């Protein structure tokens, strides 16, 4: 298998708050949200059996934003942690002790040399802590996201665009497709197969959960984006779940999102959502068929960003103190998730 798999592990998840002061002044301490009536029912009551539905995009041109440089100075504290403004959410207790092995960390010599060729400062501190930075590098541009902002730069560090991601922007990057003032956990990457930038953020409002994703129309992030605001309230019988701690990845034909499922109308745990997007229609701004799969025994799985041949889509997460869980989807058009375990040196959680 001629592939290079890159998986990003984020230790902490972040989000926005509802009562902090942003650049436009104080935010409302509460909003009345009415659950939309035109959302799908995503039935994942059958574990590892996909459910299919269709999302329609909104086409937006960032060159038409009234304010294309919204992020100027760092915002003074306090910088609250996001979990304070989300429902209580804890993963269940999993068996911590894995099978013993003789593997040892840090063996061998490292000849890695780091050459500092300079750099530039990107988005300054926003109101959230932690900022959860993410970086995407294309041929001529760099896209940066943090909680809760986005910016485009040329490779000399000249800012070409910056905006808040939520509705406190003027406008916010995702406000134009319905995003409110509580988007969180943004991520981005550059898809070298399609030569596009891809940006993701989550949203949560009382009984609403959204996975919002945007795809640029070419390798220049300035201009047209195809934006999909996708429902992520997951049903299992009478129980519903919301999505937290996203993973974001790709291969040559599909985009992938993962997320932990926490109880929305209950205090339960739903496992992990695996969401599969056929990228072909998303590259031209057409409706996309989404395939959702749930694995109840999984937790905190992150997506690979894959280069080279793509025999499977890969995902990775911690299983216990001597093993990682590596899962894969072999047929993204009709996905099921297969898991294997890989031995690693003994370690403990913080």
Protein model, in words:
This protein has 350 residues and is mainly β. Helix content is 1%, strand content 43%. The chain is built from one helix and 23 strands. The chain has one helix spanning 279-282, and strands at 3-7, 21-22, 25-26, 42-43, 51-55, 58-61, 134-137, 141-146, 149-154, 159-164, 183-191, 196-205, 208-216, 224-231, 234-236, 239-250, 254-263, 269-278, 288-295, 302-308, 313-320, 323-329, 338-343. The protein has a seven-stranded mixed β-sheet. It has a five-stranded antiparallel β-sheet with strand order 1-20-21-22-23, with no helix packed on it. β16 and β17 form a beta hairpin.
Write the layout of secondary structure elements.
Layout: E1 3-7, E2 21-22, E3 25-26, E4 42-43, E5 51-55, E6 58-61, E7 134-137, E8 141-146, E9 149-154, E10 159-164, E11 183-191, E12 196-205, E13 208-216, E14 224-231, E15 234-236, E16 239-250, E17 254-263, E18 269-278, H1 279-282, E19 288-295, E20 302-308, E21 313-320, E22 323-329, E23 338-343
């Amino acid at each position: 298998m001629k592939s290079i798999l890159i998986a990003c592990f984020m230790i902490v998840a972040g989000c926005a708050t509802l009562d902090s002061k942003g650049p436009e002044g104080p935010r409302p301490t509460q909003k009345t949200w009415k659950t939309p009536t035109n959302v799908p029912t995503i039935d994942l009551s059958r574990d590892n059996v996909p459910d299919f539905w269709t999302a329609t995009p909104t086409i937006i041109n960032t060159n038409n934003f009234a304010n294309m440089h919204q992020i100027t100075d760092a915002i003074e504290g306090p910088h609250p942690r996001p979990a304070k403004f989300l429902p209580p959410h804890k993963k269940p207790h999993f068996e911590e002790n894995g099978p013993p092995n003789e593997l040892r960390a840090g063996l061998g010599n490292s000849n890695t040399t780091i050459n500092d060729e300079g750099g530039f400062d990107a988005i300054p501190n926003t109101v959230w802590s932690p900022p959860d930075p993410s970086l995407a590098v294309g041929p001529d541009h760099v896209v940066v996201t943090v909680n809760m902002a986005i910016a485009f730069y040329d490779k000399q560090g000249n800012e070409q665009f910056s905006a808040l991601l939520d509705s406190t922007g003027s406008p916010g990057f995702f406000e134009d497709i319905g995003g409110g003032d509580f988007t969180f956990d943004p991520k981005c990457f550059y898809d070298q197969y399609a030569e596009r930038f891809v940006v993701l953020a989550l949203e949560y409002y009382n009984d609403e959960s959204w996975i919002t994703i945007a795809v640029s129309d070419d390798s220049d992030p300035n201009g047209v984006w195809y934006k999909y605001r996708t429902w992520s309230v997951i049903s299992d019988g009478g129980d519903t779940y919301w999505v937290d701690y996203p993973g974001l990845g790709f291969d040559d034909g599909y985009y992938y999102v993962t997320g932990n499922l926490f109880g929305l109308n209950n205090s339960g745990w739903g496992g992990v959502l695996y969401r599969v997007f056929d990228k072909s229609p998303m590259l031209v701004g057409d409706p996309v068929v989404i395939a959702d799969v749930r694995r109840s025994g999984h937790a905190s799985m992150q997506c690979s960003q894959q280069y080279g041949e793509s025999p499977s889509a890969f995902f990775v997460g911690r299983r216990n103190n001597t093993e990682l869980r590596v899962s894969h989807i072999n047929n993204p058009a009709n996905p099921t998730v297969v898991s294997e375990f890989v031995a690693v040196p003994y370690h403990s959680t913080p």
